[in-house]
Design a protein that fits this description.
About 20% of the residues lie in helices and about 30% in strands. It is of the alpha+beta class and about 550 residues long.
């Protein structure tokens, strides 16, 4: 038999004995560990919050799909032991528990077969098990890890101070962002895009923080811009985005869908339509996956899942058919990931549509991760060029050296065997470029970026690599004569001060554009076909050469 904390057991028995006759009639907020009616109207005193200046470095708030070194939870548990066992297979599990409770936790975990080598304790008091809401938010400040704290919107003083305890635990800085917020109402893609329900604005404004300040602070403390603040389609007081939506990757988002007969149906569809028409950070509209939930009293908290390295842990509801459909949707959206359904049949802490697995866990990013940031993604139909530049930042947060022979762009032309193009430095910090060549007009090209460092880590973009690569096609190219690319030579590439165009064709005009299509001011000498690029900022540019026979387009890098 598992050892239990006698105080908690006594409380549970007394509570059950006094209320067994009427539990089904008692609102959820009166059950153990749930938000009480009194709390909903109490004044919040943020004892654990201190406003600070924002980080000085470039800020990045990693996405949940990125590498995690640990998961934080609270004991006594709000999750089943099965979930603890699953998480401890993949990374460290940090248990926040009172000192006197630690031995009971150890006994429970050992009895459940938890890998104790991956279990650590932080001894602290808590008021609830919703560590997603009150726990620390981990960011990179430049290349160093840090924590961002905000004004927690619940009157729970022990919970409120926990971010500071974790800053001490990791020995990293903590910044105070003066915005009323909770972790369950925040999802981010790792590339600077964030989403929250509009309660973040209404509760902040009630504390004298303007809507403009909310957006400004999300950008300066978390690097979030754009910040999508939506309606709450669920229409519940909790108003947390993880109850109805989830970023799966930078270009994939899962959104709940209720039947048309449900009165909330128009609100769910409004949000889904918004994201279907909104571009992701890679420049094209989100791929929206709709997970069906029946609504009403049927438990179906499928978006309240946890992505943990190569595993997706999904809370199971009360309808088997909906459960299996949700799991299958995750398998389709996350190819190569292990998708695990987690049941929770505990009367006191079972899953709810407003509170499930995600709410009671919080991942800790790998402080030493390797990050590939290819923003100028090639997609759709691309204008003909003799080669296509793929530019990416590669950041080894560990400080380890990059493996230069492993900085590669893998590409396939018209479904053929994958080839590689080596990435070379552009001259900008952490930035590299490679060139895709060898395609024909109307070719379809699949590609992904891969990098490795001396710490043993590797990373690819997009997340699923060869399974779901970036894809683009070349335009017909009728304006380009046969072998036209062989008739014009552009050098040197990368260029520093001068870029030269060598050809026997009659050149009518030479124009330089940036990657956003804006024409750049350059001093062109038509006699020598030399272009002065010394005034350009470092980066990737497009060179268009207009001749009597047509146009030639090529990309070049300015050091």
């Amino acid at each position: 038999m598992n050892k239990k904390n006698p105080l908690i057991l006594l409380f549970v028995l007394l509570f059950a004995g006094l209320n067994a006759h009427s539990q089904e009639d008692v609102p959820l907020w009166r059950k153990m560990k749930y938000l009480s009616e009194e709390e909903m109207y109490m004044t919040v005193d943020n004892r654990g919050f201190e406003e600070t200046a924002p980080p000085m470095g470039e800020v990045r708030f990693p996405g949940e799909y990125e590498p995690m070194q640990a998961v934080m939870i609270v004991y006594p548990l709000g999750i089943p032991l099965e979930l603890v066992r699953e998480m401890a297979e993949d990374c460290k599990v940090i248990i926040v528990a009172e000192t006197y409770n630690q031995e009971f936790a150890v006994a429970d975990f050992q009895a459940a077969g938890v890998n104790m080598d991956n279990v650590e304790f932080l001894n602290a008091s808590t008021d609830s098990y919703w560590i997603r809401d009150f726990g620390p938010w981990y960011i990179f400040d430049g290349k160093e890890p840090a924590i961002v704290d905000n004004r927690y919107n619940r009157p729970r003083p022990n919970d409120d101070v926990l971010p500071g305890r974790f800053a001490e635990y990791w020995d990293i800085p903590m910044y105070g962002m003066n915005v009323v917020h909770t972790g369950g109402n925040m999802m981010q893609d790792g590339f600077g895009v964030g989403v929250s329900d509009d309660i973040v604005v209404t509760e902040s404004v009630a504390k004298g923080i303007t809507e403009e300040q909310v957006y400004e602070r999300m950008k300066s403390y978390l690097g979030i811009d754009p910040y999508h603040v939506t309606i709450d389609p669920q229409g519940d007081y909790i108003a947390h985005v993880d109850c109805w939506g989830k970023f799966l990757t930078p270009d994939k988002i899962m959104l709940a869908r209720v039947p048309e007969s449900n009165p909330r149906y128009p609100y769910y569809e409004e949000v889904a339509d918004y994201f279907a028409k909104t571009n992701c950070s890679w420049g094209y509209p989100y791929k929206v996956y709709r997970v069906d939930i029946p609504g009403g009293n049927v438990i179906s908290p499928y978006t309240n899942s946890l992505i943990l390295n190569k595993k997706v842990l999904v809370p199971m509801g009360s309808d088997a058919a909906y459960n299996e459909a949700a799991l299958e949707l995750y398998r389709k959206a996350m190819p190569g990931y292990e998708v695990v359904g987690i049941e929770n049949k505990s009367y006191w802490s079972s899953w709810l549509n407003t509170d499930a697995l995600h709410c009671r866990t919080r991942g800790v990013m790998d402080f030493d991760m390797l990050y590939v940031d290819h923003r100028d993604v090639l997609f759709g139909e691309q204008e003909w060029q003799d080669s296509m530049a793929v530019t990416s930042k590669v950041i080894a947060y560990s400080g380890a050296e990059l493996k230069q022979d492993s900085l590669l762009v893998y590409y396939s032309i018209d479904g053929g065997t994958y080839q590689t193009a080596a990435m070379t430095p552009t001259g900008n910090a952490d930035e590299y470029v490679a060139y895709i060549k060898g395609y024909q007009k109307e070719s379809k090209v699949d590609y992904y970026v891969f990098a490795a460092d001396e710490s043993g880590r590797n990373c690819q973009q997009p997340v699923f690599g060869k399974t779901e690569p970036h894809t683009f096609t070349l335009e017909n190219g009728d304006a380009v004569v046969e072998n036209y690319a062989n008739e014009i030579e552009v050098y040197p590439n990368p260029a520093n001060n001068k870029l030269y165009v060598e050809t026997e064709l009659d050149v009518e005009e030479i124009v330089v554009y940036d990657v956003y299509g804006r024409q750049q001011s350059t001093d062109n000498s038509q006699q020598t076909l030399g272009i002065d690029v010394s005034g350009l900022n470092s980066g990737v540019y497009m060179l268009k050469v207009m001749t009597e026979n047509g146009e030639f387009v090529s990309r070049f890098v300015k050091k």
